[in-house]
């Protein structure tokens, strides 16, 4: 009887702490998501007084003939593939540098991590001035107009600017995860490899990289999901321009709902977007999890 009362008491404490979190999650995420799924089957402009017209799955079938939506998907894929590589390569390189006996390693960690603390909207406006007006002024002053020009006026350069900003923002955060993984590698494993004659690059490629697979799993998941969902930098840096050349998935959905007032169709896009991000990240995690090495 005493054991049963103790279990009930423990359950009560668990419920006390978990219920607020579940309530917030249900209110902010779960219920709006379910309502959004319902709206995706209607044609509606989002105004409460206007009627909702049931259209079934036509909002979803319409997606495959929507050239602007398909273009935003292509832009998102290109941006994500390039940004994942640059963010993780730089983050790992930073982590390898600041885990050496470098005297200023603690200062370097702080400086490299600081860009992540700047909000995406504010960061986009800062870089909008740099790659726009500042680059154009430097090009005019130096005559190097081929490099220093207003990147935001060219579609490919504007997309490259987004990659630069996303890399500058996230590389320091990813570095922290890689630092944790590197520091978790036992020293005796590294020492044994060095005793067996392993050089610097052999130690990194044959010892550290395989043991860093849990960190790779986390970092790839975070960069993949964040790059696919990017919106704030897209909005403040390029606004989707020039001529929608940098309009990403999330911004296309935003424009569909709030600029074109196609609430039901925009919700259908959002549902497809959610499924794509969930599927891609689940596949990535399952693949990298299989390659993890237990220490």
Tell me what the structure shows.
The protein has 295 residues and is mainly α. Helix content is 74%, strand content 1%. It starts with a helix and ends in a 5-residue tail after the last helix.
Question: What's this, in brief?
Answer:
Helices cover 74% and strands 1% of the residues. It is mainly alpha-helical.
Secondary-structure topology with pairs:
Layout: H1 2-39, E1 42-43, E2 53-54, H2 58-62, H3 67-98, H4 105-113, H5 120-142, H6 155-183, H7 187-195, H8 200-211, H9 213-228, H10 232-238, H11 249-259, H12 263-290
Antiparallel strand pairs: 1-2
List keywords for this structure.
mainly alpha, globular, 12 helices, 74% helix, 2 strands, two-stranded antiparallel sheet, 295 residues
Q: Over the alpha carbons, how many angstroms does the gyration radius reach?
A: 24 Å
Mean pLDDT: 87
Number of strands: 2
Helix content, binned percent:
over 70%
Low confidence ranges: none
The largest pleated sheet is described as: 2 strands, antiparallel
Distance between the termini: 44 Å
Based on the structure, what is the oligomeric state of the protein chains?
single chain
Total of helices: 12
Tell me the overall shape.
globular
Strand order in space, largest sheet: 1-2
